[in-house]
Amino acid sequence: MHSTNVENGTTSQPTPETAPTGVPTESVTAIAPTEIIPPSGTPVTSGPSAFLETAYEPHPDVTVEEVTKLSDDDLLTGLKKQHSKTKQEIEAYLIYFDETVRRFSAAQPRSEGGQFEHKDQPTLPEAFDAIGRNYETERKRASRYRNAKNTRLRRLNPPSFDEGEIVKDVNFAECVFISEPKAGKAEIAPVGGRLDDVTTVPANSLVRVRVKRIELNDLILCADDDKQYRYIGKGLLECLDISALIKQKQERDAAAIRERQEQTIANAKATVAGKARHNAGLREEITKRDHLLVTEKPGKHRKRSHKPKAARAEKPTDPKPKSKADLDKEKQKAEEKAKQKVQDDARRAEIEDRIRAVIAPFGVGVDGNDKSVFLGKQSADGNEVRLQQEPTS
């Protein structure tokens, strides 16, 4: 609590309240200035806009409809009086809250085994539960009020500046703080100005400009040119030129990118060339196959059976006598086979005739032994070339 000596005008430092257990409580009590409410009908001109205080008295059962019908003076009067009442009620509430915390937060006794034992009075959370309130909620409420109150009291005190410190005024212009001629006032001068340019302004209107302190050999990066500087003392900065190194690194990266692009293009060209060679080989193979189909006899390249005749199954030496029905079936099969052979021969002859008719315009023919012969073709000079026929055996 603050204690003030009226005779000598000295004020002692605040001392935190201590609970019986030796743990300081969280109460912070500050002396609030005494507020004197003028009588009704007194014009209040402390702010930028004056109003006439009326005889209106706020009451706890006020409603929104009632407040909306009030005049401006009655509304402001009710707000001011209710603020005073609420402030007094909160201050009284904090007194009860602090005493409750001090009384019910005493240490609980423990048994020989170290277990907590219930004492005659309830614990701190149980005490708040008994009145239908939550301890954590009420603790945060009291803490928020005290923090807001301390912040308001700190704002009432004007800031202190050092001589020669750079500050900003209400127009956000940088000025130099000269001195404090009296409480709440400050003398400032423009940066680069003279003592004749000093003006006096309220100290609350000034804002301190943040100054960065640098040590010797500290590095500084400028935002305008992205260059690095080293502080070498006496207000001098040394520029660290790393542009050549960065340029070499960028050129190396560009060369690597070009190399990868060239390699990608070369691989793509190789792939296209490989596909072209593959397609050309396929076309050549198809041409050869078509030429063989046109010029050679059907069935010439028919694969022979790899099984020798000796490996075929031998007929039984003593065949079982066949019945008349079996003999009739074999005879019918032989007739059908002979008939089919005649049809195949006729079909083969028809195919050969068609082949001769197709290949005759190309200078290719078949001799009497069914062998392919070249009747003639034109050379590169346009001369006719004749080939001798193979001798017949």
Question: What's the short version?
Answer:
The chain is α+β, with helices and mostly antiparallel strands and 393 residues long. The chain has 6 helices and 14 strands. The protein is 40% helix and 12% strand.
Description:
The chain has 393 residues and is α+β, with helices and mostly antiparallel strands. It folds into five domains: 114 residues, no CATH class; 54 residues, SH3 type barrels (Roll), CATH 2.30.30; 29 residues, no CATH class; 55 residues; 59 residues, no CATH class. Helices cover 40% and strands 12% of the residues. The protein is built from six helices and 14 strands. The strands form five sheets. The protein has a five-stranded antiparallel sheet with strand order 6-5-4-3-7, with no helix packed on it. It has a three-stranded antiparallel sheet with strand order 8-9-10, with no helix packed on it. The longest helix has 53 residues. It is elongated.
Low-confidence stretches: 1-37, 384-393
Strand pairing plus helix content: what structural class? alpha+beta
Please tell me how large the radius of gyration is: 58 Å
Mean pLDDT: 75
Judging from the principal axes of the Cα atoms, what is the shape? elongated
Q: In whole angstroms, how far apart are the ends?
A: 142 Å
Total helical segments: 6
Secondary structure topology:
Layout: E1 43-44, E2 51-52, H1 64-68, H2 72-104, H3 124-130, H4 135-156, E3 166-168, E4 174-179, E5 185-190, E6 199-202, E7 207-208, E8 219-221, E9 228-233, E10 236-240, H5 243-295, H6 324-359, E11 364-366, E12 372-374, E13 377-378, E14 384-385
Antiparallel strand pairs: 1-2, 3-4, 3-7, 4-5, 5-6, 8-9, 9-10, 11-12, 13-14
